[in-house]
From TrEMBL:
Record-given protein name: AKTIP protein
Species of origin: Acromyrmex insinuator
Listed InterPro entries: Ub_conjugating_enzyme (IPR050113), UBC (IPR000608), UBQ-conjugating_enzyme/RWD (IPR016135)
Ranges where the record places region Disordered: 204-232
Residues in UBC core domain copies: 22-170
Listed SUPFAM superfamilies: UBC-like
Gene3D superfamilies: Ubiquitin Conjugating Enzyme
PANTHER family associated with the record: UBIQUITIN-CONJUGATING ENZYME E2
Matching PROSITE patterns: UBC_2
CDD domains, per database record: UEV_AKTIP
C-alpha cells in the first residue's frame, strides 16, 4: 500500500475539521453583524447544541399585528454560508398570507427570490419584521384563506389577526418546546426580583464603564478576522 493512500484519510479528516471551524467562524461573524444592527423588537440566539439552529422571538410594535409575541426558529443550510435561504418556521400559530398555516414556515422567496452569498441573516430578520407591518397584496401567498380575506374582507381578516395576537400573548409563559439552554423563555414579572435589576439598567453608567475595551476581532460588516476600519 502506498504512502499516499495511507495519508488520504488523515488529509480528509483535517479538511473536514477545517470546514467545521470555518463554518462556525462564519456563523459567529453573522451573529456579530446582526448584533450591530438596529433591529427593534426582534431577538435571536443560536442554539447551544446546534449552531445551525437559531431561536427567535418577535415583538410586534405597530400595524395590525401590534401586541403579538411570535416565536420562531431559523435553520441554516448544512453548507452555510452557501446554500439556499435559511428556513424560518414560526412556533406560534399566525394568520398571515406568507405563513403556511400547517407547518408555520415563512415564505422567504417574496423577500429573497434568490439567496446570494452577500445576503445576511440580519436582512432576513428585517424581512420578518416587515411582513407584519406592511402587507402587500402582490405577495406570494402560502395561506390562500388569509390572502383572500385580506383582499376581499379586511374586517374579517383583522378579527382573525387579533385572535392570533391574543393567543400568542397567552402562550408567552409556556414551557420550552425544546430542551436547549438557549431556548428563549419568559417568566412573570416579580417586583422583588426584577425591580432592582430594572433600576440598575436605568441608572447612568460611569464614564470608566463606557470606555471601549479595544479593537473588535471582526470589523462590523466584514467577515475578515482581526480587522479594523482603515485609517482616513
Amino acid at each position: 500500500m502506498s504512502a499516499k493512500m495511507i495519508d488520504r484519510p488523515i488529509v480528509w479528516q483535517i479538511n473536514k475539521q477545517h470546514a467545521i471551524f470555518s463554518q462556525e467562524y462564519n456563523i459567529l461573524s453573522e451573529y456579530k453583524m446582526l448584533c450591530s444592527q438596529d433591529l427593534k423588537g426582534i431577538y435571536v440566539i443560536p442554539s447551544a447544541l446546534n449552531a445551525l439552529l437559531w431561536f427567535g422571538v418577535q415583538f410586534i410594535r405597530q400595524g395590525i399585528y401590534k401586541g403579538g409575541v411570535f416565536r420562531f426558529t431559523i435553520t441554516l443550510p448544512p453548507n452555510f454560508p452557501l446554500g439556499d435561504c435559511p428556513k424560518v418556521v414560526f412556533e406560534t400559530q399566525i394568520f398571515h398570507p406568507l405563513i403556511n398555516p400547517e407547518s408555520g414556515e415563512l415564505c422567504t422567496s417574496w423577500g429573497f427570490p434568490e439567496w446570494r452569498r452577500n445576503n445576511r441573516i440580519w436582512q432576513l430578520l428585517q424581512y420578518i419584521t416587515k411582513i407584519f407591518i406592511k402587507l402587500d397584496t402582490k405577495m406570494t401567498s402560502v395561506n390562500e384563506e388569509a390572502s383572500c380575506l385580506h383582499e376581499n374582507n379586511f374586517e374579517a381578516f383583522q378579527d382573525r389577526v387579533k385572535a392570533c395576537v391574543k393567543e400568542s400573548v397567552n402562550q408567552v409563559f409556556n414551557p420550552p418546546t425544546m430542551d436547549d439552554p438557549h431556548y428563549i423563555t419568559f417568566n412573570p414579572y416579580v417586583k422583588e426580583v426584577h425591580d432592582p435589576i430594572k433600576q440598575e439598567i436605568y441608572e447612568p453608567k460611569d464614564e470608566e464603564e463606557n470606555k471601549p475595551l479595544g479593537l473588535s476581532w471582526v470589523q462590523p460588516g466584514s467577515l475578515q478576522p482581526f480587522s479594523k476600519p482603515e485609517a482616513r
